[in-house]
Amino acid sequence: MNKANVPVSILLLLILCFGIGLVAKGQANFRPGYVVSLAGDTLRGEVDSREGGTNAERCRFRAIPTADIITYSPTEVRGFGIAGGRRYRTLTMPVSDARIRVGAVAGLPYFMEVLVDGPAQLYFMRVQGYDHFLVASPVRPLALLQHGIERVDRKMGSDVVTYQEELTPYRQVLAQALPNCPLAQRRLPALAYTEFGFRRVVVLYNDCQGSPAMPLAKRAVAAHVRLGLMGGMSRSRQLFDANSPYHGQAILDNATPTAGITLALTVPRISQERFTLQTALLYGVDKSDREYTAPAPGTLNGVQGLRLHFNVAFLRVPVMIRYTYPRGRVRPLLEGGFVSTIAIRSENYHQTTDYFGEFTSPQMDKDFGVIGYGAGVGAGLATLLPGGRALSLLARADINYGFLTSTPVQRFSALLSVDLTK
């Protein structure tokens, strides 16, 4: 028997510690800052500047690095600031267009990041996984900038035609909030729903009022790392190559469970939450105990036989670029990338028949490869659970080279993953 062994416990421990370390770093990052109390007093110290959507609903503050952490809600302070120019104000969420889903609740206070300040202000917050942009000006109270898609059924003769209609109420809101400024108004009819576009028209309006917008730091670009769990079923299939007398028959054709941990990396400035780098450490097992026959004119009965025992435990490490549609309660996703497979335990041998058709002693397979490599693609659906954690259902197909024979291993998996962190 051939056994290939890797110190699995050490490998798993190192990777898990590395992943948790990345998450911990991304989830807590205290920087110099301040909190403004309800009485208007400024308390200086350090503020947690982490990404991930929690800044809209809470502020973690400590007076000095060794002091206890105090968590403030929007009802307890007027706002807070972080070194580098990022400022948050406590404001009440306005009423939204009922046709378009949002994460925030109208009438509740939130910490809103100030993107542009001046006569007109532009704000941003992320709640329950949804991005919210808001604008206020001397002639328009705080209003939400919304964009969405509506399904419309229209009767045409005896038929009903269904189509999707783009909803752009954000353009009407900006037109009302930024009047008497031709430079800003002329951009609104074709203005895209982007932070860059909103910044530009609000800054132009403030310039028209003779009050240049205050320079503020752009939203943080720090990478956001999420740790999760993944599990499901994986079907593996591998055939004998063309040089084998058993060509076309399956070496592997079975379905087994697979499970492991996942890491997702997002760089908001680059991806705008649409693209993420997804990787995972998934454990699985491939097994096969089969017998095969093929014509053999030189034997007593004209047939040769093969008995194959194949039992491999492995770790799969997919590295995928994933695109997730940015709107809707249930969001489609697509992904593609590379997949590596590392054998951590193998037990592989075969027996052949002699001239009389009797099986010989088991022979170990010395040519078994420890590392496989290949590519994969996937498609699925994602949604947000209460609390803002993502749940994904994924169908993935990959092809892997490097194990046992020159023919690839094809794998088809149905996987369910859930984020442990936001």
Account of the 3D structure:
- There is one protein chain.
- The strands form three sheets. Strands 4-3-2-1-5-6-7-8-9-10 form a ten-stranded antiparallel sheet.
- It has two domains: 8-22 and 222-419, Beta Barrel (Porin), CATH 2.40.160.20; 30-208, no CATH class.
- It is mainly β.
- The longest helix is centred in the first third of the chain and has 20 residues, at 8-27.
- It has helices at 8-27, 169-177, 182-185, 195-208, 268-271, and strands at residues 30-37, 42-48, 59-62, 70-72, 77-82, 86-92, 109-116, 121-127, 130-137, 140-145, 148-156, 159-167, 224-239, 250-266, 275-295, 303-324, 330-352, 363-364, 371-384, 390-401, 409-419.
- Strand 1 and strand 2 (42-48) form a beta hairpin.
- It has five helices and 21 strands.
- Helices cover 12% and strands 52% of the residues.
